[in-house]
């Protein structure tokens, strides 16, 4: 689906960046940031030059997920920021720039201008793909971003649960409204594999996102299992694709990357 860059693109892109891909969800807590981070790493493992923009202003996750701290330096004379680097990814997050409490109370226009700055006033350099971890939901900030950022496409993350799926449907509708192609739907927390007995439990159900993708006529990109290993890796700042590159979770992300 991510072919060569469209020549007739009217929205403003980011110079040097071939494709901007949003990772979005209709609501918070479904694992959008987890997917964005591991998908970015999986794309980098394919040999692509990848950037990761944490636009989840109200709950930036990348500093913790990638164990990144410190302030990005301002490039002398150019008034742009140098992204931080983790596992070969160039990363920018509002979490590097302001303290979390401050951004929590920003109104829409502040959020939008912060996202615009992180897109355009950062030295992304030459990238094949810039993955954007969107703020959850389908409000103004998301719509503006989808409208203005020359997105090549969007990946929608959902759990298998009915409620999350309703929100995922809203997400798909929002991107369709602004003519951003849906690259696919990911089912996260798909099933739980017990680390003791190896048995499987479908805690949030199973297969709902695949069915929903079919009903909406969009690609289905895979099922990420709910596992302790994934959660621990994330909490410890070493994403599962890096920690256990041949494990069951990483292989889902590698497959996903191959489909984009
Ligand atoms: P969102 O970005 O949608 O708010 P996060 O990616 O921050 O969600 O995930 C929410 C929490 O769930 C985090 O603690 C994360 O480590 C955990 N989590 C997400 N996906 C999985 C999974 N497949 N297995 C285990 N834990 C997960």
The string of secondary-structure elements, in order, is EHEHEEEEHHHEHEHEEHEHHH
Low-confidence stretches: none
CATH architecture: 3-Layer(aba) Sandwich
Mean pLDDT: 91
Over all CA atoms, what is the radius of gyration?
17 Å
Estimate the helix proportion, in percent: 25-40%
Name the hetero compounds present. Answer: adenosine-5'-diphosphate
Question: How many distinct folded domains?
Answer: 1
CATH topology tier name: Rossmann fold
- Percentage of β-strand residues: 15-25%
Gap from first CA to last CA: 6 Å
Description:
With 260 residues, the chain is an alpha/beta fold. It has one domain (17-259): P-loop containing nucleotide triphosphate hydrolases (Rossmann fold, 3-Layer(aba) Sandwich), CATH 3.40.50.300. The chain has helices at 32-45, 62-65, 94-97, 100-104, 108-120, 140-148, 162-177, 208-216, 228-235, 240-243, 248-259; strands at residues 17-24, 50-54, 74-75, 80-81, 84-86, 89-93, 127-133, 153-158, 182-193, 200-201, 220-226. Strands 1, 2, 5, 6, 7, 8, 9, 10 and 11 form a nine-stranded mixed β-sheet that branches. Helix 7 links the parallel strand 8 and strand 9 (182-193). The chain is globular, with a radius of gyration of 17 Å. The termini are close together. Adenosine-5'-diphosphate binds at residues 25, 28-34, 61, 136, 188-189, 224, 226-227, 230-231, 234.
Characteristic key phrases:
9-stranded mixed beta sheet, two-stranded antiparallel ribbon, alpha/beta, binds adenosine-5'-diphosphate, iron, 260 residues, 11 helices, Rossmann fold
């Amino acid at each position: 689906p991510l072919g060569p860059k469209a020549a007739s693109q009217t929205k403003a892109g980011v110079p040097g960046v071939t494709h901007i891909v949003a990772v979005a969800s209709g609501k918070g807590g479904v694992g959008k940031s987890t997917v964005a981070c591991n998908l970015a790493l999986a794309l980098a493992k394919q040999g692509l030059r990848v950037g990761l923009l944490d636009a989840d202003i109200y709950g930036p996750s990348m500093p913790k997920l990638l164990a990144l701290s410190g302030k990005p330096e301002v490039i002398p004379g150019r008034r742009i920021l140098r992204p931080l680097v983790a596992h070969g990814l160039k990363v920018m997050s509002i979490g590097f720039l302001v303290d979390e409490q401050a951004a929590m109370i920003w109104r829409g226009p502040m959020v939008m201008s912060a996202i615009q700055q992180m897109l355009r006033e950062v030295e992304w350099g030459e990238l094949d793909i810039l993955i954007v971890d969107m703020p959850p939901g389908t409000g103004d900030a998301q719509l503006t971003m989808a409208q203005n950022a020359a997105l090549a496409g969007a990946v929608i993350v959902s759990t298998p649960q009915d409620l999350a799926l309703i929100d995922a449907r809203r997400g798909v509708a929002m991107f369709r409204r602004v003519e951003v192609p849906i690259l696919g739907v990911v089912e996260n927390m798909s099933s739980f594999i017990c680390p003791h007995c190896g048995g499987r439990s479908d805690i949030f159900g199973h297969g709902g996102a695949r069915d929903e993708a079919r009903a909406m006529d969009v690609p289905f990109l895979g099922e990420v299992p709910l596992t302790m290993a994934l959660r621990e890796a994330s909490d410890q700042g070493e994403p599962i694709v890096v920690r256990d590159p041949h494990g069951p979770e990483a292989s889902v992300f590698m497959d996903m990357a191959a489909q984009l």
